[in-house]
Amino acid sequence: MSSNHTATATTDPFDESGAPTIPAVDDIDPRVHERRWMILGVLCLSLLIIVMDNTILNVAIPSLITDLGASNSEIQWIIDSYVLVFAGLLLTAGSLSDRFGRKGALQFGIVLFGLGSAAAALSDSATQLIATRAFMGIGGALIMPATLSILMNVFRDPTERGRAIAVWAGFSGLGVAIGPMTGGFLLEHFSWHSVFWVNLPLGITALVLGAFFVPTSRDPNQGKLDPVGALLSIVGLAGVLFGIIEGPADGWTHGTVVAGFVVGGVALAAFVYWELHTANPMLDMSVFRNARFSAASGTITLVFFAMFGSLFLMTQYWQLVHGYTPLEAGVRLLPQAVTMMIVAPASARLVERLGTKRVVSSGLVLMMIGVGLLSFIAPETPYVVVISFLVVMSIGMGMTMAPATESVMGSLPREKAGVGSAINDTTRQVGGALGVAIIGSAVSSVYRNRVSDSSAQFGLDAADDALAQTSLGAGQRVAAELGARSGEFLDSVNQSFVDAMSVGLRVSVVVIGLAAVMVWKFLPAQATDASGSAGRPGAVSAPGGAPMVVGTTTRAGAAYTTSGETAP
């Protein structure tokens, strides 16, 4: 069959830089191909800004309490207002980037994130900071899916794309690890405002480099906008996340928490129904029939559940049990970050030799071993022992996250890279939020019981007993006021927390084990590429592996129908 394909350039309404535009399906611009690794560097810098920002902020919490007089509830919402807006808008932002241009979405997101950071740095009340953090979430929702979707359109060769995604995943892990160290350094020399000002030079650098080097792309086969789907996805994700965030603090049966889950659940159910029946869906639900896509998405959700829950506990262990400052704790986590940076890019070559299923399964087993060993540590366990267990965990994470991400993205046509990236990012956010909430709640419950059991022997009154049960930090403050028995009670509350932490870490082990079973049962050993790189140039597989038309596509019901010339 003869081919009459032509490379049609797309336009980005935001792009006035003159940077080359990627043809949506056919051969890539040679100039883009030549500088693809430079483009990857710009994308990783953009990603690093938003990932690092979240962990930097955690370090500044004591300063915010002192300078702004923020309550515990306000501190929680300074952090969570960003997460709520960010995760709630991801699917919509990814869809809009596919339609209007991914480079424009990336750069507009960086501008919004920078403006929000400046406003946050200038805030003089907790209420203002909550509002500006929510505004930053809009920028973050545009940035994160755009980085991965642009990567998918720049790296056309499946092997090379797998390596690029591995580097992208490595930088994501790096941002989580270096955030506390950077924040600790800034707070030792400047005020809490500096953790927001630092975003500006990084953002300006990414903005300028992106204007010159990053090409744009968009979905050439656009139907009408899907405002109903966008609204339902925002309400659904925001409602569920609100319930997850508020559950540990207010109780899972509290009226507002239940309302959040009910509203979110109903909206998400309506979203699925609407997307299955509308002629122009924002998210084609048929992609979930693809075992590779669904298994990888489920794996990412479960892994981030376990990872965020575990890191949440280890942060408290370093700073409260061992008494490290944020900077000291950040420096001690560097081996974990370096390991992730080395292993994640190397995972792509392992996949080439062993296949996705074996590499991801092996990585999950290593994660189970690392987290399982962590569940046996004690308050006096030496640093070198703890970090060795964390390194084992990081090796497993590096082997898991990049191949799983590539499985999600490689299951979709390149034209839908924005939505695909948004799904990938949403699973991370929901999984991570659930991990912190559920594992944190389990740890709090065990900790309260342990402290309650030991309070009587120290003769605590009811008020001190209740205060000591609220958190490890509160228990340590109570211990400081006990005089001669202060040291004994301090050892007791530290041990109570470590015992509770062990329970939480073992929950993580079980969740990682479920992910390993899912991978082994459902993830194909060697998946075919659906993003347009297989076969002759321009061939694009539809979700599920069926050949998809190169040219015009429409959708009826849950299956693709095609018109034009099909790829062999």
Task: Give structural notes.
With 568 residues, this protein is mostly helical. The chain has one domain (30-226, 278-448, 498-541): Growth Hormone, Chain: A (Up-down Bundle), CATH 1.20.1250.20. 73% of the residues lie in helices and 4% in strands. The chain has 20 helices and 3 strands. The protein has helices spanning 30-34, 36-59, 61-68, 72-100, 102-121, 126-154, 158-189, 194-197, 199-213, 227-250, 255-277, 291-321, 326-332, 334-354, 356-374, 383-410, 417-455, 462-470, 472-480, 486-522, and strands at 540-541, 547-556, 559-566. Strands 1-2-3 form a 3-stranded antiparallel sheet, with no helix packed on it. Strand 2 and strand 3 (559-566) form a beta hairpin. The chain is globular. The N and C termini lie close together (9 Å). The model is unreliable at 1-26 and 532-568 (pLDDT under 50). Keywords: Cell membrane, Membrane, Transmembrane, Transmembrane helix, Transport.
Ends apart, CA distance between termini: 9 Å
Integer tally of domains:
1
User: pLDDT average, as an integer?
Assistant: 80
Structural class by SSE content:
mainly alpha
The run of helices and strands is HHHHHHHHHHHHHHHHHHHHEEE
The beta-strand count equals 3
Poorly predicted ranges (pLDDT <50, ≥5 residues)? 1-26, 532-568
The backbone outline, from C-alpha atoms, is globular
Strand content: under 5%
CATH class value: Mainly Alpha
As for the CATH topology, it is Growth Hormone, Chain: A
Could you give me the name of the CATH homologous superfamily?
Answer: MFS general substrate transporter like domains
Number of helices: 20
Reported for the largest beta sheet, the result is: 3 strands, antiparallel
> What strand line-up does the widest sheet have?
1-2-3
Question: What is the CA-atom radius of gyration, in angstroms?
Answer: 24 Å
- Proportion in helices: over 70%
Examine the secondary-structure arrangement and name the CATH architecture: Up-down Bundle
